């Protein structure tokens, strides 16, 4: 498993499988995504206003033959923590559910084995996304993340809103980071981070998810620090890995 982990240093990802997301039954007229690795930044901007479901971007999607799964087994025959489609057990939940950034590379590797998380670790960064990030800097993006997590629809589980309250392609680097690290909705927080739906998020929860999203930002935009007045904790990407 160690050889599959990937590095946050200088934003270089070591992922030998380079899995593509091919969505079956997609016609050219539908403009639905065929492979995230084939997407360009222009594609992202062109498709951002389309409904995510029409693009095939859905939380419970899996492509097990390509090692992209979904680990939400709430209504399936498989044991909790395994893939809802094939039953494979790949995640060390004792690592993922610890509120620590010490094993963040390992956690990111686990996130990356789920279809929807994988998508947001690979979707191309566009000029719009980068401009927003530069405008706010690390500290500003951290505050944006905190503000989003403090919204009532995140603090408490609201069935009518859950699964739909976090923007996707049309969002910002913060929205993308929340999808990638499974703090985009309470349902994802439940099965990835073991936060019950009836639990109201507390300050410690919000701070942990905020820092997790910021690690994603550092990975996707490793040069952001040169445009930011004060990066989070004043640390570099390499220093962040060791913290």
Describe what is shown at a glance:
The chain is 40% helix and 0% strand. With 243 residues, the protein is mostly helical.
Question: Can you characterise this structure?
Answer:
By secondary structure, the chain is mainly alpha-helical. It has one domain (2-242). Helix content is 40%, strand content 0%. The chain contains 11 helices and no strands. Helix 5 runs antiparallel to helix 8, helix 6 packs across helix 8 and helix 8 (173-180) packs across helix 10. The chain is globular, with a radius of gyration of 17 Å. It starts with 40 loop residues before the first helix and ends with a helix. The model is unreliable at 1-29 and 229-243 (pLDDT under 50).
Broad structural category: mainly alpha
Whole-number mean pLDDT: 83
- For the secondary structure, the number of strands is 0
Q: H/E element string?
A: HHHHHHHHHHH
Task: Note the overall shape.
Answer: globular
Task: Note the main sheet.
Answer: none
Helix content, binned percent: 40-55%
Rounded to the nearest angstrom, the distance between the terminal CA atoms is: 22 Å
Q: Indicate the proportion of strand residues.
A: under 5%
Unreliable residue runs: 1-29, 229-243
Radius of gyration, Cα only, in angstroms?
17 Å
The domain count comes to: 1
Count helical runs: 11
SSE diagram, text form:
Elements: H1 41-47, H2 52-55, H3 93-96, H4 104-111, H5 115-122, H6 127-149, H7 152-155, H8 173-180, H9 186-193, H10 203-220, H11 237-242
Helix pairs in contact: 5-8, 6-8, 6-10, 8-10
């Amino acid at each position: 498993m160690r050889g599959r982990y990937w590095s946050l240093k200088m934003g270089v990802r070591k992922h030998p499988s380079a899995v593509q997301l091919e969505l079956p039954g997609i016609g050219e007229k539908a403009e639905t995504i065929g492979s995230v690795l084939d997407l360009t930044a222009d594609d992202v901007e062109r498709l951002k206003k389309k409904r995510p479901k029409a693009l095939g971007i859905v939380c419970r999607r899996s492509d097990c033959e390509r090692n992209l799964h979904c680990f939400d087994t709430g209504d399936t025959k498989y044991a909790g923590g395994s893939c809802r489609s094939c039953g494979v057990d790949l995640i060390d939940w004792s690592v993922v559910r610890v509120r620590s950034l010490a094993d963040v590379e390992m956690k990111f590797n686990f996130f990356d084995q789920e279809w929807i998380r994988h998508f947001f670790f690979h979707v191309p960064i566009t000029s719009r996304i980068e401009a927003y990030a530069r405008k706010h800097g690390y500290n500003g993006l951290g505050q944006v993340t905190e503000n989003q997590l403090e919204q009532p629809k995140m603090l408490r589980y609201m069935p009518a809103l859950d699964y739909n309250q976090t923007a996707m392609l049309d969002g910002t680097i913060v929205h993308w980071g929340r999808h990638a690290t499974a703090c985009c909705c309470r349902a994802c927080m439940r099965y990835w981070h073991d936060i019950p739906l009836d639990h109201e998020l507390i300050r410690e929860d919000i701070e942990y998810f905020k820092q997790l999203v910021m690690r994603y930002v550092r990975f996707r935009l490793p040069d952001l620090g040169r445009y930011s007045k004060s990066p989070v904790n004043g640390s570099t990407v390499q220093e962040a890995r060791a913290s």
